[in-house]
């Protein structure tokens, strides 16, 4: 290490210590922070960028002296951003705050020792009372909490085209089962309608379809068991769902392998196929891009227990050793404010994580989702990196689904996943 | 630049005066050849048709389902949004790509000259070791690279990015020039050396004047590669305001929502400088060697 | 090379001079050799450290090694996905190189022989090279969409029905959606080579790669054409006329005169395109992703996802080193053997 680097390191540690002391005292008094605040995310365009701007606005309102540097990097569902962030962490150039998923990814940052624990922020602001315990748990490692969540999307939603359902004379209630879905699919096919929209050029969409089918079948406790290894992926009940998944692949649009998730939503909106299993980011796509009316043009249902909420949350952390730790703390505080959460989630289409936010100004879908998030059973999405397993398990799951699409072999899939869970503990 | 332009005109004149002999023969064969070229046009033009029409469509219309349709209604929103997001970073790319291209081509030319005209012990080994640099996986060397740039104080700066592009360009430019200089007789170099010129002076007075075509080949290759890179741009320069235009281009597509009209418009806008470079220099790129080669 | 001024005295003098200059030339090459060495070998040494480590992370550079030392490489060899990637990269590189170089050569000849519109065709064939892979990947994904892409054109233009009429088979290629691997030799290999049982993938040609090869060649064929055009232009007119007098005409002229003269250009093109093929990432990532059963997956995608999605930096680094070593073994000795004299 050169002398310069040592000097930089000393200064950084000094600043961090200073920042920590400032931060630990500031939340009570609500003293405003100033200086540069670099926010590292993968939200760059359209509604996600508009939503991000709401977080900036809230931070600026509480801290007029702060200058925000928006260091967003798109691509690869956040993977490009993680790549750039990794080199910055490697070089010791640590941003004040960055976006991450609660779960294996967050745990990885904790293990690297690059995050500040946020226990005092949570204590001072009483967030433990307003954020659902399951979500708090997903951000807690070694007894400390390391992130704030700005939103939670629901992954386990089935969207359907009402006009096509009407043509086939089928309906779905607020929840459904595999048997009911299979019946609906048969009726749709009888009318020459492609039952299922899929765009799995990126494998995560097929992974999500299977995930929500499994959660719907085995329930929240079964899913938790699968993630912690107490239930086997090679068990007959999972094998049965994998069999259903293989059947469901036969219901899809023939170009599913060259469509992405948004393409599949487009197919649903334009009546080329009838149902799509997708997170509720599809809601914004249906409403804004395709000008569809909730309840008139499209409907939605849940596979299995309707009060089970498969979570996909976006979290922000406070980097340890950044140049302006006080600003990072101010950011975390500002984006957790009820106003910021309300404004952000209105544009993002997700539910605020605080259960004390008044969502009566939202549309019916979002109101419902927020209610289930506050009261229902929350389980983490594996394919979206929310589960408290190593990130490599999520990758192993994607890889297993990629192979499953080629060989349709439930046995091999189960064995691969059991091995991945065992290795990822 | 003006030297290039004069050579271009000279080449153009020579071409017009004397079409190649084989062209003068075989009118029949020529018709067949022309028909073959025409057959290739759809293959090359179809993706451009899709891109250009999509750039002028509304977001919902710029979609795979309607990819063959003409833009209706015609929308300039994509072009407008792409331009507003790309334009602040255009200048960064220009002040980065020009020096990086020129310096790496110059170094490659000098190396190519040394390696093709002076085979010394270890020269092949040194060349081989440098060539490996072409194939190194960029993803896994990013962290030591950042550490090196921090060590020399160039991290986060455009000169730092230029340095990275120059160094990783050296293997390819060296290869291009080494193979290019092979067509220049060694006797020419040796004649200069008998006249008492040193290695560097021989390079300046004998080699450099006949290298313009090589520079055009290497230059266009480097220009395209460096202009289109965004990984190094993002990693070397964290500050979004001085990142190259491709970083902004990458950010046109969101993580969850993508408006393809904006992405296609952005890709076309970002490709303009490179495309114009081809059109302007295409003649040299392609016919360069005759004008420069020593007969 | 025949040389009019090669008298014994000159030769002696030349040799003396060359001997004196050798160290000087080496010295002049040294600076760029040094900086490239830092950027290549020092950085690779770091990567080797990562690849051998048990748990290296960007924020916590822990270089303590695995036990046994080769554990990460062992995991890699037994990874079916990585095996598929190696298969794909070999198939892709061979087809892509062949198509781009051969078609690039023919395009160059055709364009070179044009009397007019030369600039138009040259520009058209070269322009794809200017575009960002991210956007062209999406366009090709649309074009190879089995419902609304090229297939729709084939259907509406009547080509599909004409083809069906003639052959009895439907003309509806699956393009990137195809899961088919033809010419599988894995079971044969498993029987004949020791340790062949670790092969988990079908070793053949994934048909989905055909579409990827077409897209990549579309983008780089123009570059190959340009290299060959430069080469064709460098052939003096008198060579052509001399061979005409010798009775070589048409194809024979190209086979016996042109192709040998273009060899240095072909070599440069092949090396550059190989380097492009091995780094092929953005285009395929945007176009087809990993494909059904990893039919279009590439080592670049594997390294990217293993490092930054699965956060297994050590395995990703090991994969990139395996790729580097394989390339170095195949490409570099070939280049090194060819001194500048041979290519002259």
Throw out a few tags for this protein.
heterotrimer; A: 425 residues; alpha/beta; D-Maltodextrin-Binding Protein, domain 2; 2 domains; 6-stranded mixed β-sheet; 5-stranded mixed β-sheet; 13 strands; 15% strand; globular; B: 295 residues; mainly alpha; MetI-like fold; 0% strand; disordered C terminus
Q: Figure out the total of helices of chain A.
A: 18
Query: Under CATH, the topology of chain B is which?
Result: MetI-like fold
Helix content, binned percent of chain A: 40-55%
Integer tally of domains of chain B: 1
Report how far the terminal alpha carbons of chain B are from each other.
24 Å
Q: Could you list the spans of chain A in which at least 5 consecutive residues all have pLDDT below 50?
A: 9-29
The rounded Rg of chain B comes to 23 Å
**Biggest interface and residues each:** B-C, 117 and 116 residues
Helix tally of chain B?
13
> What CATH first level of the largest domain in chain A would be assigned?
Alpha Beta
Q: Can you summarize the main beta sheet of chain B?
A: none
Detailed description of the structure:
The complex is a heterotrimer of chains A (425), B (295) and C (344). Chain A has helices at 3-29, 46-62, 79-90, 104-112, 119-125, 127-130, 133-138, 162-168, 178-190, 204-228, 236-249, 261-269, 281-289, 325-335, 338-348, 364-375, 391-407, 410-423; strands at 35-41, 66-72, 97-100, 140-141, 144-145, 148-154, 158-161, 175-176, 194-196, 273-277, 298-303, 308-318, 377-380. Chain A is α/β, with parallel strands linked by helices and 425 residues long. Chain A has 2 domains: 3-152 and 312-375, D-Maltodextrin-Binding Protein, domain 2; 158-278 and 389-423, D-Maltodextrin-Binding Protein, domain 2 (3-Layer(aba) Sandwich). In chain A, strands 1, 2, 3, 6, 12 and 13 form a 6-stranded mixed sheet that branches. A 5-stranded mixed sheet of chain A has the order 8-11-7-10-9, sandwiched between helices. In chain A, β4 and β5 (144-145) form a beta hairpin. Chain A is globular and about 65 Å long. The two termini of chain A are 35 Å apart. Chain B has one domain (79-292): MetI-like (MetI-like fold), CATH 1.10.3720.10. Chain B is 74% helix and 0% strand. Chain B is built from 13 helices and no strands. Chain B has helices at 2-17, 21-24, 27-55, 77-117, 123-131, 138-151, 158-181, 186-194, 199-207, 212-228, 231-236, 245-250, 260-292. The longest helix of chain B is centred in the N-terminal third of the chain and has 41 residues, at 77-117. Chain B starts with a helix and ends with a helix. Chain C has 344 residues and is mainly alpha-helical. Chain C has a single domain, classed as MetI-like fold, CATH 1.10.3720. Chain C has a two-stranded antiparallel sheet with strand order 1-2. Chain C is globular, with a radius of gyration of 25 Å. The interface between A and B is large, with 47 and 33 residues.
């Amino acid at each position: 290490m050169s002398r310069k680097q040592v000097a930089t390191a000393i200064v950084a540690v000094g600043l961090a210590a200073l920042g920590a002391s400032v931060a630990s005292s500031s939340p009570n008094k609500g003293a405003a922070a100033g200086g540069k605040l670099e926010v590292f995310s993968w939200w760059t365009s359209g509604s996600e960028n508009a939503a991000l701007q709401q977080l900036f606005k809230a931070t600026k309102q509480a801290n007029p002296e702060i200058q925000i540097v928006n260091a967003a990097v798109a691509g690869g569902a956040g993977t490009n951003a993680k790549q750039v962030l990794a080199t910055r962490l490697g070089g010791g150039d640590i941003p004040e705050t960055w976006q991450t998923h609660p779960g294996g990814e967050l745990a990885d940052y904790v293990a690297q020792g690059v995050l500040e624990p946020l226990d005092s922020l949570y204590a001072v602001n009483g967030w433990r009372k307003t954020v659902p315990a399951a979500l708090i748990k997903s951000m807690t490692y070694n007894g400390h909490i390391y992130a704030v969540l700005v939103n939670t999307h629901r992954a386990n939603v089935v969207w359907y085209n009402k006009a096509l359902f009407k043509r086939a004379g089928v309906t779905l209630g607020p929840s459904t089962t595999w048997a009911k879905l299979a019946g609906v699919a048969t009726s749709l096919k009888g009318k020459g309608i492609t039952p299922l929209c899929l765009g799995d050029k990126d494998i995560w969409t097929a992974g999500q379809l299977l995930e929500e089918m499994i959660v719907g079948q085995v329930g929240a406790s079964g899913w938790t068991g699968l993630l912690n290894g107490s239930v086997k992926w090679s068990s007959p009940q999972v094998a049965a769902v994998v069999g259903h998944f293989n059947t469901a692949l036969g219901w899809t649009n023939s170009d599913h392998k060259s469509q992405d998730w948004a393409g599949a939503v487009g197919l649903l909106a334009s009546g080329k196929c009838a149902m799509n299993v997708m997170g509720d980011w599809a809601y914004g796509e249906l409403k804004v891009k395709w000008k569809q009316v909730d309840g008139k043009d499209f409907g939605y249902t849940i596979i299995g227990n309707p009060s089970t909420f498969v979570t996909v949350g976006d979290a922000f952390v406070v980097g340890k050793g950044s140049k302006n730790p006080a600003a990072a703390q101010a950011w975390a505080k500002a984006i957790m404010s009820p106003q910021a959460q309300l404004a952000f989630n209105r544009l993002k289409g997700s539910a605020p994580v605080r259960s004390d936010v008044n969502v009566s100004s939202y549309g019916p879908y979002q109101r419902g989702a927020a209610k289930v998030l506050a009261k229902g059973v929350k389980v983490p999405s594996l394919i979206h990196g929310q589960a408290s397993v190593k990130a490599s398990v999520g990758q192993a799951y994607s890889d297993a689904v990629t192979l499953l699409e080629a060989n349709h072999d439930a046995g091999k899939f189960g064995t691969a996943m059991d091995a991945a869970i065992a290795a990822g503990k | 630049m003006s030297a290039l332009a004069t050579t271009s005109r000279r080449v153009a004149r020579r071409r017009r005066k004397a079409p190649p002999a084989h062209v003068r023969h075989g009118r029949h064969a020529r018709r067949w050849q022309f028909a073959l070229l025409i057959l290739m046009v759809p293959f090359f033009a179809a993706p451009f048709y899709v891109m250009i029409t999509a750039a002028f469509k509304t977001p919902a219309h710029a979609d795979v389902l309607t990819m063959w349709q003409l833009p209706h209604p015609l929308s300039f929103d994509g072009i407008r949004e792409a331009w507003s997001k790309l334009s602040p970073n255009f200048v960064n790319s220009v002040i980065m790509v020009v020096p990086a291209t020129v310096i790496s081509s110059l170094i490659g030319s000098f190396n190519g000259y040394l390696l093709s005209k002076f085979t010394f012990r270890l020269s092949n080994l040194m060349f081989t070791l440098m060539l490996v640099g072409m194939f190194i996986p960029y993803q896994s060397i990013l962290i030591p690279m950042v550490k090196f740039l921090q060590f020399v104080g160039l991290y986060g700066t455009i000169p730092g990015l230029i340095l990275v592009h120059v160094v990783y360009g050296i293997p390819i430019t060296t290869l291009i020039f080494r193979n290019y200089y092979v067509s220049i007789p060694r006797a020419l170099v040796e004649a200069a050396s008998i006249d008492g010129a040193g290695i560097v002076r021989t390079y300046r007075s004998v080699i450099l004047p006949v290298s313009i075509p090589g520079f055009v080949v290497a230059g266009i290759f480097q220009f395209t590669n460096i202009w289109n890179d965004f990984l190094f741009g993002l990693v070397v320069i964290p500050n979004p305001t001085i990142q190259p235009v491709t970083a902004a281009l990458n950010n046109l597509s969101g993580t969850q929502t993508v408006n393809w009209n904006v992405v296609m418009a952005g890709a076309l806008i970002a490709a303009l400088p490179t495309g114009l470079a081809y059109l302007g220099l295409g003649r040299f790129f392609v016919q360069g060697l005759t004008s420069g080669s020593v007969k | 090379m025949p040389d009019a001024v090669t008298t014994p005295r000159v030769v002696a003098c030349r040799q003396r001079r060359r001997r004196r200059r050798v160290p000087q030339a080496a010295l002049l090459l040294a600076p760029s050799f040094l900086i490239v060495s830092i950027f290549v070998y020092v950085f690779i040494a770091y990567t080797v450290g990562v690849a051998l480590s048990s748990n290296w992370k960007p924020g916590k550079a822990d270089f303590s090694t695995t036990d046994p030392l080769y554990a990460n490489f062992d995991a890699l060899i037994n990874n079916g996905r990585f095996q598929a990637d190696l298969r794909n990269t070999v198939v892709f590189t061979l087809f892509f190189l062949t198509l781009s170089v051969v078609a690039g050569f023919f395009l160059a000849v055709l364009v070179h022989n044009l009397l007019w519109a030369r600039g138009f065709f040259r520009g058209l064939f070269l322009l794809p090279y200017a575009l960002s892979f991210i956007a062209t990947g999406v366009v090709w994904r649309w074009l190879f969409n089995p419902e609304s892409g090229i297939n729709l054109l084939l259907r509406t233009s009547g080509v599909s029905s004409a083809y069906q009429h003639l052959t009895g088979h439907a003309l509806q290629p699956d393009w990137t959606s195809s899961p088919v691997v033809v010419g599988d030799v894995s079971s044969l290999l498993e029987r004949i080579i020791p340790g062949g049982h670790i092969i988990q993938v079908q070793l053949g040609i994934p048909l989905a790669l055909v579409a990827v090869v077409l897209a990549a060649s579309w983008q780089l064929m123009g570059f190959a054409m340009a290299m060959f055009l430069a080469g064709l232009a460098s052939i003096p007119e008198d060579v052509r006329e001399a061979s005409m007098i010798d009775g070589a005409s048409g194809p024979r002229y190209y086979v016996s005169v042109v192709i040998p003269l273009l060899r240095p250009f072909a070599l440069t093109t092949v090396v550059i395109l190989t380097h492009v093929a091995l780094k092929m990432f953005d285009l395929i990532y945007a176009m087809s992703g990993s494909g059904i059963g990893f039919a279009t997956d590439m080592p670049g995608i594997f390294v990217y996802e293993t490092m930054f999605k699965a956060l297994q930096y050590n395995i990703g680094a090991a994969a990139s080193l395996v790729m580097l070593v394989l390339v170095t073994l195949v490409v570099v000795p070939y280049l090194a053997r060819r001194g500048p004299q041979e290519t002259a």
